[in-house]
Here is the input.
Amino acid sequence: MAYSLFDIAGPVMIGPSSSHTAGAVKIGQFARAVFDKTPSKVTFYMHGSFATVSAGHATDKALMAGIMKFKTSDPQIKNALNIAKKLGIAYKFAKTDLGPEFHPNTVKIVLEAPGKKSMEVIGSSIGGGSARIVKINDFDVDIKAIAGKYKYLVISHSNDSAVLTEVLQKITKFDKYYIAGIQSAHIDNHSLTILNLEGRDLSLKQVLELAKVKGVEFVRSLTKLD
Amino acid sequence: MKRFVFHTGAELLRLAEKYKMPISEIALNYEQGVSEKTEKEVIAKMKRNLDVMREAVKSGLRLNKKSFSGMSGGNAGKMLKYAGSKSKKITSKALLKAMAYAIACGETNAQMGRIVAFPTAGASGVIPAAVLSVSEELKLSDEKIMKGLFTASAIGLIIAENATLAGAYGGCQAEIGSASAMAAAAITEMRGGTPKQCLDAASLSLKNMLGLTCDPIAGLVEVPCVKRNAMGVTNAFSGSEIALAGIESFVTFDDVVEAMKTTGEMMPSALRETALGGLALTPTGCRIRAKIGLPPIKSAH
Here is the structure.
């Protein structure tokens, strides 16, 4: 995927660190968007330099700010932990070692909410405020949280090619959408498929239509984050 | 309309020479292709960056309180005052002001103020300092500054694609080093240099930063980061002057970027933003660690 100049010249952000503050906000935003609900409890497992130097970079506040959908340029990031307390979001930070295959700036986020299956998202902050999501619920994915023309659809469904085919057919019937990339991961009889779409943002109605396909557990539409 | 695409310095230079355009115009055209936005929209977005940069410099110059760690804050004003004082200096006023602006951005960033991560937050002072000071010295319009910002972005994009901009991967050569190369190309174009001279200025500046460690005390983006932004802009000024003197970089820009990448890969992780080596490991570094309540560094070697 081609870089935008504004991946370099930007983001406009609250300091002090693009990797440890802005990139962390984006990983939080992503986790929140995939979970699709304000969590009641969030646990952050900090890996590598996220574990060792996070306090001084306000990485903890930044991750929590992202979970609450703050932008990277929001001056309220510095108060994110207090705001979370006021909103009744319980949070915990723990150190972990996810293994050498993970980027040094990585966090595993576990989101929980009553009446909802908990979700696990692993994201890495890869420099300059860009982030990459590498795992969702144990499924290997590769989603870049950087500006650009791409949009992502995250589809959780049963491992049955007919299900995915029906989803793809529906998308091609929508006006002005192109599927620029597709990645699928399977565990047992369950699959997680990520589609890169080009074109306009999908409407909520269109997303709901895709979610109705038999065998689909959920569909999340992720547009660019700032 | 034809859309330009480039991934290397050689490709960028070929386009600029073939179409007789400055690097900034190639970059502006590239972005329209990638983002599917109009020229006006792309320029407006860059203008927002310029506005934030100016504000970051201004608020940094006014900052008179120390950061939480006590390591930074209040130095930008001191530097600007010196720049305007009657005492004899050995460098130009433009450079002295640039140093003050660079420290100002760094101090704004360290205290959770708003900056443009260009290319990163820790290195966010170099480019604004260079373009703002040069534009004041040469009385250049905002339009000219924007050209500098587009040129800097093009250089940064090539580094991001072929090496890295992250201190955790490449050390500080990837952050202040890249910013310095980007700033050198920016001001070289603003001063009327050719695309080749812009790339030479970038190469010269980046070469001088190879191997630079990322060793922040207590992991905070303060020491050496804030003042290193001033050193980075000084290095950019030198690169620009050498290139405009007609001296070429013996090593091509793409080769220098490659060298930066391999050098980063050879650097131990203690010197790549983990705050476990270099300045962070000195008695001063360890004292600050203890002061802010971090556990001591177990010997990383």
Notes: Chain A has eight helices and eleven strands.
